[in-house]
Amino acid sequence: MKSYKLVFCSIIIVLLTLFILGGCGSTTSPTGEDYPVGLSIEKLTNFSIKLTWMYEPADSDTLYYQIARKIGTVDWEENYMILESDVHEAIDYIPTSDSLVYAYKVRYYNEILGTVSPYSEVVAYLSEYTYPTDMVINQISQETLEISWLDHCQGEEGYILDRKVNDGEWENGYVLLAPDNTQITDNVNIFDTITYRVYAYIGTSVTDYLSKEQLATLLPPSGLSSTIPDLNKIRLTWQDNSDGEDGFIIDKMTGEQDWETDYTIVDSNITTYVDDNILPCGVLKYRIKAFKDQNSSGYSNIDTLFVNLEFIGSYATPGSALQVFLPVENYYIPEWTAFVSDGYQGLAVLDCSNPSSPSPITTYQDLWGDRTLSSFVSENFLYVATQSLANAVGGIQKVDITNMQSPVISNVTETVGIPKDVYVEGDFAYVAEGSNGVTIMYIASSIPSSVSNIPLSDARKIFVREENGTVYAYVANGLNNGLVIIDVTDPYNPVQISDLPLEGLANDIFVIDNIAYLSNGEKGLEIIDISSITAPFVIKNLTTGGFVNGVFAENNYVYISDIEKGFHVIDCSNPSSAYILGSLEMITEPLSIHIAGSYAYLTDSEGIKIIKIKP
User: Fold this and answer.
1) Staple partner for 581: which of 66, 282, 390, 540, CB 3.0–4.6 Å?
2) Are 422 and 430 a contacting pair, CB within 8 Å?
3) CATH class as words, domain 222-307
4) pTM score, two decimals?
5) How far apart are CA 429 and CA 488, in angstroms?
6) 26-125 matches 128-215 in fold
7) What mean pLDDT is reported for the chain?
8) DSSP-derived 3-state class of residue 311
């Protein structure tokens, strides 16, 4: 019993001692810490923030609060603010859309005792402009990831990187990084999905998170390249960077079609593949990835292969080349002779038997008018469309070129409109005269003579052919007028059969079988079904993103000149699903196009360009 009383008395003595000590001028925070606590920061306006904290001094104490501030990477400014003891908040005026860190801490000064408390925790205002951005995760080996980001913060204490593996818990504070350190490497297990989040911190304040996840997988192949060992084969080679793969998956893209994924699969440790090539020309792309079970690596580089599609040669004419024509299987004219309508510099005749180095044969500058617009060769005669600037009319001349060095030029047959194109079929020339429509001329005599006219709004190009005893003229009819079809079986009494108005600038026309190909400016290429000559309709519109000007077709392929995009080859083996098979960019603006043999001939302001399109 006596022992219990002794313990009780001892407890009473201790409590009294603590009470006496507690009333002798000491100061306390609500948490028992002897310095200000709970320091927090909030944005008030675009130009101000507010600090708040907690501390409960004894009544007899005379205290002041000292606030220190740090801006960016400069040193702390002690005694930035001094406040009375009954004040527990402060407002500071700062820009709140800055990449600088504005950090604060607070302590008290006891004037009676002459003592200073420790500082509180540090808080900071971190605007959205201090947040890290652009996290990139690169797999540098099958067990190692490299994580990096952009640092926009000036004055942070460092960065914290958290990590999560698959669907597990976050490993908070997985890595602490010094200021301005924005890259680390991490060891991982293959086929784990790792998520990282990173944020800048100073004291108890942090920026928003920046996060990203990455599947640690097989390393992708690299160095993919292709060669053409012979006309019908394409050889791919690459570097194998992965370990333990089951094999490689090769994807293929033909022209501007979608990727053909899983085009073929090869076994592990194989680093070459030979593909069949059935294209006369075009652009092929390949990419490859390693796989194991259901997992796969990222893709290799994309290899782009131009198959029989390349610039071969060019010739600079003195004028501005508008149109080129090469007669095919003409007994009177040497093969590979090009006739170039060269604007104000007449008509240039070129020898293109060596397409890599065309050479001049002669130039016809004694033609009527000022500007040569178009030409057509039939047997030993050249028919030239020219324009006179003096009286704003045009003309057609017949030129005997049996001896190309000494041509015999006929008198001119003037046209009412501007002769933008001329096409010869049999004994008649068909002239597209812009706003004067189509004029038909009899050309069997020494001087062409007009025999009839079909008025149209803007006839620009014309294509003529015979079908089962009936002769039709197909006309590209300019702005928003599309295609016009005329029965010219009786050249003296032509009859318009049908028209197909289309939005765009119909500028050129080519016909094969039951399909008409109409170049239509920014609207692209119109593929038109003409099996019913009285009711043509568009079965496919193919845009290029540029301005389609000239068109030429051969077999299942259509070749177009695009003023903005250069040269395109279109696969029209299935007209309703035609697609761009290959393209070549040009720094000039190609206008007309003509195909002869294995080459495409294009005109531009510099002269002609020659492009290989076949083996």
Assistant:
1) 282
2) yes
3) mainly beta
4) 0.77
5) 11
6) yes
7) 92
8) strand
